[in-house]
Design brief:
- The structure holds 2 protein chains of 2 kinds.
- By secondary structure, chain A is of the alpha+beta class.
- Chain A is built from 7 helices and 12 strands.
- In chain A, a hairpin with a 5-residue loop joins β11 and β12.
- In chain A, α1 packs antiparallel against α2, α4 crosses α7 and α6 packs across α7.
- The longest helix of chain A has 32 residues.
- The radius of gyration of chain A is 27 Å and the shape is elongated.
- The relative contact order of chain A is 0.12.
- Chain B is mostly helical.
- Chain B is built from 15 helices and no strands.
- Chain B is globular.
- The chains are: A alpha+beta, B mainly alpha.
- The structure holds copper (II) ion (2 copies).
- One copper (II) ion (CU) binds next to loops of chain A.
- Chain B: One of its GO terms (molecular function) is metal ion binding.
Chain lengths: 309, 555
């Protein structure tokens, strides 16, 4: 049997098995009736075959239509209500970045530790995945956690889980993505928090993500325009994340991750009001991971909010 | 009565039928007779069915072991793409409408032909041209995008013959639109005297509802395919995120066609099954009017549920909620139909002929397919099951267990009318039963695989999934036998079968009032309808039911 390894799993299974029960009942009733009628009314038996009583038909039709509708709506409500809490991402969560590409999963922990086709997480801690793809659509699916989320190019999608049981679980790419789709798999290792901390410490530590972004910010020449000493007109990026930005056409957007990313890759798409559209596109210059790091750096420039550790 | 002549075209002296009006190839290829076009379609879709089936066989062979040892990854991807493209657009969509529908709809409404006979012939030519494009793509080396053509894989990353295949699908769409327009016009304009809307057989209603969906949904498929061609050929940035396009937009367009397309496949099947069950149970269809409304409601709501394919694609939670809600709503009319078929058996006088076995098989498989649809309409359960074998099993229950069983049932039911020959009843029953069990052996294990998490479109898989895959592949052998048997006894029937009477099943419906096979213009004089459909009841008869002389009875 499939382990219920996340806090979400039991709720999903409850609905799943509830539906199995319902299906068995309905298959039983329909199959039972068909069989009974098939035997009782097979050609040649002496069963009564006269006209139906008058109330059969209209009243019966209306009756079972209403009953079915009621059952259907009940299941809808039941399932939707169970999903609602999962739609809300938890506020305090370990935030892990995932970049998918044909045909591998690249994972970055906030501390800068990187993994490929593997993800180590502590048990009992909500983990939020911020995901994007470098090429085609992939999907991050972990059956044991009952989670799945498509990973899109040019956009961030996220999902979260809280692992409940220590162990190794399958990670599958569940959106067909070309030749080696079937090999785009990995292992999720759920560890006790202490073991996880030990594991983290043993890994070769790169710069943490925001720190890496800070270096790139200079290396790629962003600071020449956005830096404190810059002499070209460009908006300051401090405290940008989460704020409302007024655009040149007068509309407003919230500066979320997608906005930051778009500003780097296609600056002409949303031009900040009051500035010339002089920023060059970094499409193809900064790699997907570098964009992730830059976004992390800009987010960390926020005085109020600091990266969840 | 067995006549001593042999061969399909042999006839009693003086007898003429649509089959004998001209026997040259030209007289077939340029015929505007709806019955001959139906035959042309039947032969072509049979060809495609076996091509698609061959691909399925290789898929099941590969999945017998967890390693990718029988095919390479690329070959496997081409195989399932081929299987999907051929089976959906070149078999399932045209199957019942273009063959049985073409043949029967004018007969059922008492017309000489469809409203636009030449458009009808053109539809077949479009189908063939489209088939040639798609087969060319296949012969050159295949397509590896899956039948769903998701972007940006299909537009920017695939190195296979996407353009040819997409163009083929673009063209085949027009053949369904032509059929749809023809059927709508036929039902509106060519009903004979006394054939009111509420006297239309349910098969005719099914064709009508299907045609509405075909005409309204297929242009959207054409759009989707053209946009793919535009981005691939001219680099028009529609789905390319780097140029500001939206890859998910494609999924919206694609499923806006492809969900209704499920109803293009299943509504005709519902029509066929209603005819067979009513006749073989000697009963008026229970809740005839509700059956009609249910089909129309399905056709309409079918357009509003496409987002249930995208619960994990990154669409907004609100959208997911609404699509989930509507998907539950559309389950209601489908359930009503199942209850009504069951109700039709009540107080019937049931004969277990081969068509009836197929029809009862349909009811069972369709019910299970529909119920598992509820799993996929529930958002949290769908998140777990989407893109796993559960989905594969679900839609095969609907489209193969449902639509194909009904197609086979219909083929047997109207075979005597179409060919003027009877087939071997015992072989046919045996095939129907084999098919039912083979189908369940093949696809039921896939529900379990899906729950356990095995993703679809994987040619390699972790070893713990092997048991279920072996079961499924073994079942597929039984299923294949079930599909091959009719080829044998139908061929024998054409050459050597007993001559069929005009109405061997003693069915109601105008098609049974004319000769078997029907004359070129269907009826010698225009029929007049005086009764409601399915006037099977003869209340004067003693308990014990209709006469016992027709068929061999189960002891
Ligand atoms: Cu993939
Ligand atoms: Cu759908």
């Amino acid at each position: 049997m499939l382990p219920e390894a996340s806090t979400l799993a039991p709720a999903v299974d409850r609905i799943f098995w509830g539906l199995v029960g319902l299906s068995v009942v309905i298959m039983g009733v329909v199959g039972g009736l068909v069989l009974t009628f098939a035997i009782k009314y097979r050609r040649g038996t002496k069963a009564y075959r006269g006209p139906l009583p008058d109330i059969m038909s209209r009243e019966v039709e209306i009756g079972w239509t209403v009953a079915t509708l009621f059952v259907a709506l009940f299941i809808f409500w039941w399932a939707a209500a169970a999903q609602l809490p999962h739609f809300l991402l938890p506020k305090k969560a370990l935030e892990i970045h995932v970049v998918a590409k044909q045909w591998m999963w690249k994972v970055q922990h906030p501390e800068g530790v990187r993994e490929i086709d593997a993800l180590h997480v502590p048990v009992g801690v909500p983990v939020k995945l911020e995901m994007t793809s470098q090429d085609v659509i992939h999907s991050f699916g972990v059956p044991a956690f009952r989670i799945k989320q498509d990973v899109l190019p040019g956009r961030y999608t996220s999902t979260w889980f809280e692992a409940k049981e220590v162990g190794d679980y399958h990670l599958f790419c569940t959106e067909y993505c070309g030749t080696d789709h079937a090999r785009m798999t990995g292992t999720i290792t759920v560890m006790e928090p202490e073991a996880y901390a030990r594991w983290l410490a043993e890994q070769p530590h790169g710069e943490d993500l925001a720190g890496e972004g800070a270096q790139l910010f200079t290396a790629l020449g962003c600071s020449a325009c956005h830096g404190a000493q810059a002499r070209v007109p460009a908006p300051s990026l401090a405290n940008l994340y989460g704020s409302q930005v007024v655009l040149a056409d007068g509309s407003r957007v919230t500066a979320d991750e997608d906005y930051l990313r778009e500003s780097i890759e296609r600056p002409e798409a949303k031009v900040t009001a009051g500035y010339p559209s002089t920023m060059p596109s970094y499409q193809g210059i900064a790699s997907e991971e570098q964009v992730v790091a830059l976004v992390a750096y800009i987010k960390s420039q926020d005085g109020k909010r600091s990266q969840a550790r | 009565m067995r006549s001593d002549d042999t061969g399909l075209l042999a006839r009693e002296p003086g007898e003429t039928s649509y089959l004998t009006e001209g026997t040259t190839l030209r007289s077939w290829l340029l015929s505007t007779d709806h019955k001959r076009i139906a035959i042309l379609y039947a032969i072509s879709i049979t060809g495609f069915f076996f091509i698609g089936g061959a691909a399925a066989t290789m898929i099941r062979l590969e999945l017998f072991t967890p390693q990718g040892d029988f095919t390479t990854a690329d070959e496997y991807n081409r195989l399932f793409t081929l299987h999907g493209v051929i089976m959906v657009w070149f078999f399932l969509v045209p199957s019942i409408p273009a063959t049985l529908g073409n043949f029967l709809l004018p007969l059922m409404v008492g017309a000489k032909d469809v409203a636009f006979p030449r458009l009808n012939l053109m539809s077949w030519y479009l189908y063939i041209i489209a088939g040639i494009f798609t087969l060319t793509a296949l012969l050159l080396g295949g397509v590896d995008t899956g039948w769903t053509f998701y972007t940006p894989l299909s537009t920017l990353y695939s190195n296979s013959y996407v353009l040819l295949a997409a163009f083929g699908i673009f063209v085949v769409g027009f053949s369904s639109i032509a059929t749809g327009i023809n059927f709508i016009a036929t039902v509106h304009l060519l009903r004979t005297k006394g054939m009111t809307w509420m006297r239309l057989p349910l098969f005719a209603w099914a064709m009508y509802a299907t045609s509405l969906v075909m005409v309204l949904a297929t242009p959207v498929l054409a759009m989707a395919m053209l946009l793919i061609c535009a981005e691939r050929l001219f680099g028009l940035p529609i789905f390319d995120p780097r140029a500001g396009g939206d890859p998910v937009l494609f999924q919206h367009i694609f499923w806006f066609y492809s969900h209704p397309a499920v109803y293009i496949m299943i509504l005709p099947a519902m029509g066929v099954v209603s005819e067979i069950i009513a006749c073989e149970a000697r009963r008026r269809v229970f809740g005839y009017q509700f059956m009609v409304y249910a089909m129309l409601v399905i056709a309409v709501i079918g357009f509003l549920v496409w987002g249930h394919h995208m619960f994990v694609a990154g669409q907004s939670p609100f959208a997911s909620m609404i699509f989930s809600f509507l998907s539950f709503v559309i389950a209601v009319p489908s359930a009503i139909k199942v209850f009504n078929w069951t109700g039709t058996l009540y107080r019937g006088s049931i004969r277990f002929s081969a068509p009836m076995l197929y029809a009862l098989g349909f009811v069972g498989l369709f019910t299970l397919g529909g119920l598992t649809g509820l799993f996929l309409a529930s958002i949290p359960v769908d998140v777990h099951l989407s893109d796993t074998y559960f989905v594969v099993a679900h839609f095969h229950y609907i489209m193969v267990g449902g639509a194909v069983s009904a197609f086979f049932g219909g083929l047997h039911f109207w075979w005597p009318k179409i060919t003027g020959r009877m087939y071997s009843e015992s072989f046919a029953r045996f095939a129907a039963i084999t098919l039912f069990f083979g189908f369940n052996f093949t696809f039921f294990p896939q529900f379990i695989l899906g729950y356990l998490g095995m993703p679809r479109r994987y040619h390699e898989y972790p070893p713990e999934f092997q048991v279920w895959n072996v079961m499924s592949s073994t079942g597929a052998v039984v299923l294949a036998i079930g599909y091959l048997m009719p080829l044998g006894y139908f061929a024998y029937s054409l050459l050597n079968g007993k001559r069929a009477s005009d109405n061997p099943w003693e069915a109601t419906g105008l098609e049974w009032t004319t000769n078997s096979p029907p004359p070129k213009h269907n009826f010698l004089e225009p029929p007049v309808v005086l009764t409601e459909p399915y006037a099977y009841h003869d209340w004067d008869e003693a308990p014990g039911g209709a006469d016992e002389t027709t068929q061999d009875e189960p002891a």
